[in-house]
Amino acid sequence: MAEMEILRLENVRKVYSSGDIEFEALRGVSLSVGEGEYVSVVGPSGSGKSTLMNILGCLDVATEGRYEIAGEDVSQMAEAELADVRGRRIGFVFQQFNLLPSMSAWRNVELPLSYAGVGPAERKRRAVAALESVGLGDKIDNRPGQLSGGQQQRAAIARALVTEPMLLLADEPTGNLDSVSAREILDLFDQVHSSGRTIVLITHDWDVASRTGRSIEVRDGMILERSRLTESAKAAKPAAPDELTELDEPQMAQVGES
Amino acid sequence: MSWGETIRTGLSAIRSHAMRSVLTIVGILIGIAAVILTVGLGLGTQKDVSESISSLGSNLLIVRPGSVTSSAGIRGGFGSSTSLTMDDAAALGSVTAAPDIAGVAPEASTSVSLENGDTNWTTTVTGTTTSWPQVRSRTLAQGEFFSEADAEAGASVIVLGSETAVELFGTPWAVGRSLTIDTATYEVVGVLAEQGSSDDTNLDDLAVVPMTTYSAQVSTSTTGTSVQTLYIQATAQHTLSAAYQEAETLLLNLHGITDPSAADFSISSQDALVATATAVYRTLTVLLVGIAAIALLVGGIGVMNIMLVSVTERTREIGLRKALGAKPYAIRRQFLVEATTLGLVGGVLGVGLGVTLAVFLPNVLGSSIVVSWPAVFGALAVAIGIGVVFGVYPATRAAKLAPVDALRAE
Fold first, then answer.
1. A5-244 fold
2. Cβ-based neighbours of A93, under 8 Å, separated by 6 or more
3. Which residue in chain B is spatially nearest to A119 when comparing CA positions?
4. Is 70 exceeded by the pLDDT of residue B221?
5. Are A57 and B323 inside 8 Å of each other by CB?
6. Where are the domains of chain B?
């Protein structure tokens, strides 16, 4: 990869144990994501893609293996340090939006800034600017309940971007939206990507995955990588979902250590 | 994240969960008000009991004649002899001989019928001296007690208990009216203030006349100067035993008895009453502590439940805040601020409510409520303590969870 490497997983395993039963959700995953890439992680439910997303986002820690963000090994970090990494490096977009229902849109958006130690005036300025950039400049005082699903997800994206993170991590961002709102959100991701932000998007939907530059398929805790659209083609014109129903024969390739 | 910022976050979280915050505050408030009121009611009862015991007359020694043994060898009960006299009473009243005795009231009484025209009423008529009201802790509602002059002259004057006055005259305002005993006419000079009942004695149904009058006109007994009971008032609670010694020595001397075990009188004090009162206090104290403990326990469990539920409900929020970069200490501090604020607000309102009710309820209930400040601060400390422990403990646990587990919570 020509660009600077942002994420690097080496032989990551994740084992969940409950009593005597052990379940290996990830069985030795190696993966690399470069700066400015738009990558999708695709797989059916139970494939381990959510586990992968949680580890990528430092929301969970791997049982084994090494994980580096921008060259920094985070696999051995304590919870307080991980919180710092999440706050500085990563912006999250969740399927359930996860906005706090009792706070106005701009209060929700400024939340990560308050944990990053930014002053109140600066926080409000940046939160409002982020909401304007996602087209919610006139809804800054609305509570999540007063926003449509698509608008809530826009607010969530504004919250993810307000700290200027190096990575935007989205977990089924269109899973709870109707097709029109879903398309708007994906258009917004394209826009974010074209401004140079690295995006990793987790989905079970190949139509959504097809809009990204690279898709990584996860099955049974292992990954199969396929690269379908070139970065330039992706940036030039996002393909309409129906054009992407025909897929190339996936080139199964285990990425990473050989 | 600074403390100022944390406090702002905590307060806005309280505002944004208005309903739950109000419920938590109400829970704490009721717990604390309940503790203040139950303890206050108990202390008030203790005060009422102690007051009614002291109203029976304090620092009192009671001297009764000893028993007599008839020539046939039949021993009578205590009080059956006629060994006490008015001379004994006068001697005991001497300040030089008995400096610790404040007053002596000899009493002789019998049951007679008082008549006012067609109305008659049988009551106890007591002959005594002018020191009786002081020694027996009685006051007059109306009129005056008979005077020294009346006592010396053996005047036909009478002082009535309030109930006796009502029975005879249909009104307690009986001063100036007259009544007859046998054929003698008496003028009512005073009516005693109400006292209530003591044991089986109605303290408001009686009539009092000078001892001289009693001996000459009322008593049917031939032994004119004999006294049935001598009430001796000590100058103070702590001189009671000195007064006891003086009375015993004097009476033994006067009666020419050298062996105290052969005394022809007996002196009793209110020790028994005081002992009973002490036992009552002890029981009340145990009751109070028990009630307060139960009230605190119930209040504490209420606070604990609300805090546990409200924090558990917010596990997802904790997960989200962590995903957005909140460190565990920031989560702990936020919940500490929330729990402390709720505890303080609920506690202060609870103290306000409890004290207000303690001031106004006695008018309705008719029994006193005494605000106990140790109970107030104890209840406050326990409520806030429980709130903080059970608010911060689950939050600390949630803050330690990996964000993914917290986010997954429903």
1. Rossmann fold (3.40.50)
2. A153, A156, A157, A160, A168, A169, A170, A171, A173
3. B5
4. no
5. yes
6. 3-53+276-408, 60-269
